[in-house]
Amino acid sequence: MKEIIRNQISSEIFKQIGVLEKEENQGKQEVIAREIIKEFDIEDFTPYIAYDDECNIFIAMNYYYSSYGIAESLLNGEHDVVLSSIDIYIKDESLLKECKGNANSITRDNEEKEDLNLKEIIKLHKNQKKYDEISERLQFLNNQLMNLVNFERPKCVGNYTKITDIDDEILNLEKKIEELENQLKELEK
Known about the structure:
Helix content: 55-70%
Number of strands: 4
Number of domains: 2
Strand content: 5-15%
Largest sheet: 4 strands, antiparallel
Distance between the termini: 52 Å
């Protein structure tokens, strides 16, 4: 991690940090520190101005995945990364890597939950579409059944085959209706 940070900081910035460390005027220190911070663009790190026990300014950085923020670092004096003109000091590199691992794990978990939610929504949409199709078919068959039941049967005996055909059709429609109703119950679960 130290090398990653070092590779993203130019030698010019390290020279400016050296000037900051040598400067005794606190007003000038602040101006120099602000200029240094403007030039920082290190992924996952936020630079900020910090003060030592003698109220001298130095540059510290907060790790994006850290469990505490800049305000807490300033209050307790424990900074994730401290920059000097000769080296980069990392408080606890393994802890910072662990924080990033935890954050990535949480991100993966959230993405998996979103995928599951999306799959559930798609499934619900498909089930709703199927439910609507079955409902329409069921309504059509119920209407057809009512038309057959209300149909006035022929009075002469010669039409016995027509009467039995109508009765068979009624039975078939009732079976189809029952099957569709069972499918609807399954979709509702």
